[in-house]
Amino acid sequence: MVDLRGARRLHAIGERAITEAVSRGAAFVEAEHVLLAILEGASHDRFAAALELERARSLAVVGITAADRLDATPRRGKPGWGASVRDLMKAEKPATTVELATAILRAELGTVPRALAIARIEPAELVSAVRRTAPDATTA
User: Fold this and answer.
1) Which pTM does this prediction carry?
2) Is 45 strand, coil or helix?
């Protein structure tokens, strides 16, 4: 089980990540939802747009276009923690928002690095944005 609550500072991020996953109809809270929960303002919007583009491209590979997409059935319960978050928390044990964002952005495989590459967003750019806005950034 993922415990973002273990580090009190990360509890609010965990709750926002759940909200991000639910709003996107996801069955699991994954690294991209946690990163969205961390990012604010323009960085959040830019990364959200990158995720939408990544999803559209991934679906296009198997022949699904925007017109073909079906709406997901609305979730009735809280989504579980996905493998990308479980593995991250087991390996990294981040204690601050900046450490958590950095760990997510260090990934070489998965949705986050694909979205960043498609949108030509440098991970360091997002880490800098987190350093400017995170309440616990001074301790990172």
Assistant:
1) 0.88
2) helix
The span from the CA of 62 to the CA of 92, in Å, is 34
Which residue, 79, 72, 70, 73, is CA-closest to 21? 79
Residues 63-94: tens digit of each pLDDT: 888 666 666 666 678 899 999 999 998 888 88
For residue 36, what is the enclosing H or E element? helix 31-38
Continuous segment of H or E residues that includes residue 111: helix 111-119
**Residue range 97-132, pLDDT digits in tens:** 999 999 999 999 999 999 999 999 999 999 999 999
Give the DSSP H or E segment for 31. helix 31-38
Helices (H), ranges, 39-94: 41-61, 83-92
Identify the pLDDT of residue 67: 63
Q: Which residue has the tokens 């109809």?
A: 25
Tell me the C-alpha to C-alpha distance, in Å, between residue 73 and each of 18, 23, 26, 27, 70. Answer: 17, 12, 10, 10, 9
Residues 6+ apart with CB under 8 A from 57: 118
